[in-house]
Amino acid sequence: MNYDADVIVVGAGLAGLVAAAELAAAGCRVIVLDQEPEQSLGGQAFWSFGGLFLVDSPEQRRLWVKDSHDLALQAWMGSAGFDRKEDHWPRQWAEAYVDFASAEKRAWLREQGVGFFPIVGWAERGGYGATGHGNSVPRFHIVWGTGPGILEPFIRRVREAEAQGFVSLRFRHRVTGLDATDGVIDGVHGEVLEASNVGRGRASSRTVSGEFSLRAQAVVVSSGGIGGNQDLVRKNWPKRLGKPRKRMLLGAPAHVDGSMVKVLEESGARIINRDRMWHYTEGVEHTSPIWTKHGIHILPGPSSMWFDARHPPAGAAVSGVRHPGYAGVHHEDGLRSHMVRTHTEDHSARVSALRLRPEPRPNGQEHHNATQARADRRVGPD
């Protein structure tokens, strides 16, 4: 059989770029397909804070943070709560990833040109014990340049491999089906969408201008997020969280629509743990939204509890809890806005008020330009 490539990678986000770069380095011919235009290369990682999970790193040791493989694995297992028959392979993946994060991950990233901010964050802190949900010590290592900073070396590697003929990047190619021979997936087919010059994160055209069909010895699917599709989020909403909220903010553009989940299912793939979602409760509306219902995740020092600003805290509905030791109350009366944070650790009660002064924010394109400029200038120590 004639193949168009050794491997086809569906999705040009961070996972797809890393896969393509490593495959090309091993001498494989790779075709990378993505439904979005070239200006959205890198996908969701571009908008991220660039925090990476590392265990017992030099950055932790400089801060006298004592961490270990066993402690990290204990925290992971406490958070994951593996308790279903279908959790066998997720557990294997978790153990392998903690092994990687405790060993060669940091050195490998440094070889790619990734640098780390010297202060380690304590994201997803969880409870005060080491066996429950969340990280038991700080492990949130922030990359210099944030999201664009973690993307840059892999975009560079893929572009270099493209120049050498090992990688073919094909944008506006939307995969609508997988093809199999003798029960083995060895191809994809789909639609070519018309060219689009919209900015990163903006909704692009879905007008079809053609079709395509490609074959390879292996197919890697690195696309499947549903965060930009409220219908799918509601359909898969965890029962343990009750009814989904009538109004939600989205942390992902419309193209994060979960379309590949359906494609995989139709090809015989088994999708598990759909209801094990992660929702950020600390969020506010973007004042200059780039995508529909654009929400911004607030990163407080510890995690927070938010209350409905229209009611006094004592009678308010709690919109989210991620840490038992803190509670926040946000008030707006049309004239001023402030947030109150209460700290109840050690059975004490301290309250601090922070006036939030509105500042002019750039529009979506200006934000993109400023972020890209910061990425271009990024420098920093190991």
In words, what does this structure look like?
- The protein is of the alpha+beta class and 382 residues long.
- It folds into two domains: 5-226, FAD/NAD(P)-binding domain (3-Layer(bba) Sandwich); 300-382, no CATH class.
- It has nine helices and 15 strands.
- The protein has helices spanning 14-25, 58-62, 69-80, 88-102, 105-112, 146-163, 230-235, 259-266, 364-377, and strands spanning 5-10, 30-34, 51-53, 140-142, 167-171, 173-181, 184-193, 208-221, 283-285, 295-297, 305-307, 318-321, 326-332, 337-343, 350-355.
- Strands 5-2-1-8-7-6 form a six-stranded mixed β-sheet. Strands 13-14-15 form a three-stranded antiparallel β-sheet, with no helix packed on it. A two-stranded antiparallel sheet has the order 3-4.
- α1 (14-25) runs parallel beside α6 (146-163) and α3 packs antiparallel against α4.
- The longest helix has 18 residues, at 146-163.
- The model is unreliable at 315-362 and 373-382 (pLDDT under 50).
Q: What's this entry about, in short?
A:
This protein has 382 residues and is α+β, with helices and mostly antiparallel strands. It has helices spanning 14-25, 58-62, 69-80, 88-102, 105-112, 146-163, 230-235, 259-266, 364-377; strands at 5-10, 30-34, 51-53, 140-142, 167-171, 173-181, 184-193, 208-221, 283-285, 295-297, 305-307, 318-321, 326-332, 337-343, 350-355.
Q: What's the topology here?
A:
Blueprint: E1 5-10, H1 14-25, E2 30-34, E3 51-53, H2 58-62, H3 69-80, H4 88-102, H5 105-112, E4 140-142, H6 146-163, E5 167-171, E6 173-181, E7 184-193, E8 208-221, H7 230-235, H8 259-266, E9 283-285, E10 295-297, E11 305-307, E12 318-321, E13 326-332, E14 337-343, E15 350-355, H9 364-377
Parallel strand pairs: 1-2, 1-8, 2-5
Antiparallel strand pairs: 3-4, 6-7, 7-8, 9-10, 11-12, 13-14, 14-15
